[in-house]
Structure formats: C-alpha cells, structure tokens
Amino acid sequence: MSNVIVVGCGRVGSQLANMLSDTGGNVCVIDMNADAFSNLGRSFNGSTIQGIGYDEETLIRAGVEDCDVLAAVTQSDNANLMCAEVATRLYDVPHAIARLYNPDHERAYMQLGLDYVCGTSLVAEDVFSKIVSGHGSHLDTFGEFEVMRFSLDLSCRENKRSIRVSEMERDHEVRIIAFERSDGSASSIPAPDSILYNGDLVLACVRHDLLLQFSRFIQD
C-alpha cells in the first residue's frame, strides 16, 4: 500500500486520504473542484490534482502507472465505476475500490468483478480497512462484520489442501455461510463437518478487525 490514488475529496475522500497519509502511504487526491482540497487540512502531506478521475491524462499525472490502490469515492456511482474500470482495465492497478450509493447498481459492480463498499452508513474507515486488508471480495457490510465471497487459498497450510468448516470457524472466528466447489459441481450451506477444498468458492462473514489476518485464505 505504498502508492494510493483517492478520487473525490468530499467528506469521505478527504478523511480517507488523511488516514492513508498518516500511515505513511504516498497519496494523491483527484477532484474536479480545486476548492474541495481545503477539506484535507494542513496536516495532509500528499499531493492533489484537479481533474476528472477517469480521465487518462489526469490519472497518469496522479501516478496511476505505479499505483497500488485506487479508491473512487465521489458522489456519482457512474463516475466511481468508470474510475475503477479505467484503473484496472487500462493500467492494471492491482486493487480498485468504488463507493456505491444506489444498491440497484450492485449487480453491475459484481458482474464486473469490482470491489466496492455499499451502504448509507459508509464512512472512510470502511474503505481504509479494505485498502489495508488488500482483498477484493467485499459483498456487504453489517456493523462490525463484512460479508465476503472469495476463492479459498489453503497454501498457507503447507501440504494440507482441505479444511473442515468447524475448524476454520473455530480457529479464525469466521462464519462460513455457503460454498461451491471450484469446478461448479456442487454447492451447499455447510454443516460443521463439511470439507472445504483449495479453490472452492466461499461465502463468509468476517469481523473487520480480523480481515488482515484472514486475508491469507483469499486467492488474489
């Protein structure tokens, strides 16, 4: 998380930019309105660029070619989607996160494989936690918990390529909601003795403060 671009410098964008700057990240903020940069305050030590967040020239000036994460948090779902699409499709940014206001657009975000944060209670901490954890499997947020869909990565278990649901829930304080075999041959709401295999598609509920620890089970 060394180079981050934040598109949108409203309340959420400015707070997020300051949080990232405080952790030592190299942060560049883009906004169409230069006056919006006053929201950052004097303590912000990153850079700012006036422009449209999905404009290629603007993104290049912001350093998108060496960017690790882009967070599009403007007040427009369409603009946020376009920012994330341009960043990932044209510049291979490893992790792009888009703010989503209208839940009717959620299916489009999911079909495009975009990471997003949705909900009227969205605050900068939600996006910050996703940037720090580095995962791209967010579905929804409920208070202190996040619902995630991801391909299971068991490489951290040495030569073990499977794990029992009860073991994963007990040792990692998560709840496995459902799973599908990697070849699509079967799907199920698991019982405690159900077996998960490397590569299975998993739907799980994870506490925010455990995301970083749990991220090793999420395939990139």
List its salient traits.
elongated; 220 residues; 13 strands; five-stranded antiparallel sheet; alpha/beta
Write the layout of secondary structure elements.
Layout (H helix, E strand, L loop, with lengths): L2 E5 L3 H12 L3 E6 L15 E4 L5 H7 L6 E4 L4 H15 L3 E6 L5 H6 L3 E4 L5 H10 L4 E5 L2 E7 L10 E3 H8 L1 E7 L6 E2 L6 E3 L3 E7 L3 H4 L6
Parallel strand pairs: 1-2, 1-4, 2-3, 4-5, 5-6
Antiparallel strand pairs: 7-8, 8-13, 9-12, 10-11, 10-13
Helix pairs in contact: 1-5
Identify the strand order in the major beta sheet.
Answer: 3-2-1-4-5-6
- Helix-residue proportion: 25-40%
Regions with little confidence, pLDDT below 50 for 5+ residues = none
Number of helices: 7
Strand content: 25-35%
Mean pLDDT score, rounded? 84
The SS-based structural class is: alpha/beta
End-to-end distance: 15 Å
* Radius of gyration, in angstroms, nearest whole number: 18 Å
Q: How would you sum up the global shape?
A: elongated
Largest sheet: 6 strands, parallel
**SSE arrangement, N to C:** EHEEHEHEHEHEEEHEEEEH
| Quantity of strands, as a count | 13
